[in-house]
Amino acid sequence: MARAYIFPGQGSQAVGMGAGLADAFPAAREVFQEVDDALGQKLFKLMREGPIEELTLTANTQPALMAHSIAVMRVLENEAGADIANAMYVAGHSLGEYSALCAARAISLSDTARLLRIRGEAMQAAVPVGKGAMAALIGVDLAGAQNAIDAAPGKGVCEIANDNAPGQVVISGEKERVEAVCAGAKEHGAKIAKLLPVSAPFHSSLMQPAADRMAEALENADIKSPAATLIANVTAGECVKPGDIRTLLVKQVTSRVRWTESVSYMAGEGCDQFVEIGAGKVLSGLVKRIAKDASILNVGEPGDIDVFLKA
């Protein structure tokens, strides 16, 4: 069985995330402590206790989701003998790409936490609150989504941010233009068009100031070749060279997350098991719609470890 480990992005966070792992496994506690030390913050206390409003702040959400994913991976390594070097691929959705690189030992845990804190703060600061928006278009393909954008009135920025799965496209840009696209999206095949509860227009050209900040942050970051081949968001293709990883992490801030293509590529290369590592089951649901014959596992809580072992 050829396995890919996949790592979730924003939207999977919840108060209590990681608490069960920390209670059950010393390896998980060590991860959360190292992230706290790297950030100079009691992030795990926030993850365990909330409030959700503070946890959902982008600068907290990004390192928190990564910490949970890496805690799970460390537990699998210690308790189940899992070695990520034996995986066919690793991939992550947006910030999850950093989790994938950390899990594959391309970037250290402390450096990943600090980079995601910078990324979260930079993405939040790139556009004034209330000026940007994102929306999900359900039931429409990429061509239909682009047609809806092209047909909408106004001249503001609106771009495809995520190609998540067949029939699920996310758009991002200036709020008034995004709302105009949503208003006419059903004429182009969308069954549902709804604004998402996010604080900035991620993965759009409006994020260029954040990309510039990440270019500075990544310039001197210690990046190694990953132990398992990365499938990058920007290209939906293989990436193992540190220089290429650095470049694509910068481009990722303003570029489309090509998740449908990424999963299709992995499945087409023979990957037949996808293991979602960390909070929630969002990616598993997307994979089911893309690679319908693949087996899918979620590992995020202590009880999932036994399921993984049996699989």
List the helices and strands and how they pair.
Elements (H helix, E strand, L loop, with lengths): L2 E5 L11 H6 L1 H14 L3 H7 L2 H4 L2 H22 L9 E4 L3 H8 L5 H17 L6 E7 L3 H10 L6 E8 L2 E7 H10 L7 E4 L12 H12 L9 E3 L6 E2 L2 H11 L6 H10 L4 E5 L4 H9 L4 E5 L2 H9 L1
Parallel strand pairs: 1-2, 1-9, 2-7, 9-10
Antiparallel strand pairs: 3-5, 3-6, 4-5, 7-8
Notable characteristics:
single chain; 2 domains; Alpha-Beta Plaits; 311 residues; six-stranded mixed sheet; Malonyl-Coenzyme A Acyl Carrier Protein, domain 2; four-stranded antiparallel sheet; alpha/beta
Characterization of the model:
With 311 residues, the protein is α/β, with parallel strands linked by helices. The chain folds into two domains: 3-126 and 206-310, Malonyl-Coenzyme A Acyl Carrier Protein, domain 2; 132-198, Malonyl-CoA ACP transacylase, ACP-binding (Alpha-Beta Plaits, 2-Layer Sandwich), CATH 3.30.70. The protein is built from 14 helices and ten strands. The chain has helices at residues 19-24, 26-39, 43-49, 52-55, 58-79, 96-103, 109-125, 142-151, 175-184, 208-219, 242-252, 259-268, 282-290, 302-310; strands at residues 3-7, 89-92, 132-138, 158-165, 168-174, 192-195, 229-231, 238-239, 273-277, 295-299. It has a six-stranded mixed sheet with strand order 8-7-2-1-9-10, with helices on both faces. It has a four-stranded antiparallel sheet with strand order 4-5-3-6. The longest helix is centred in the N-terminal third of the chain and has 22 residues, at 58-79. The protein is globular and about 55 Å long.
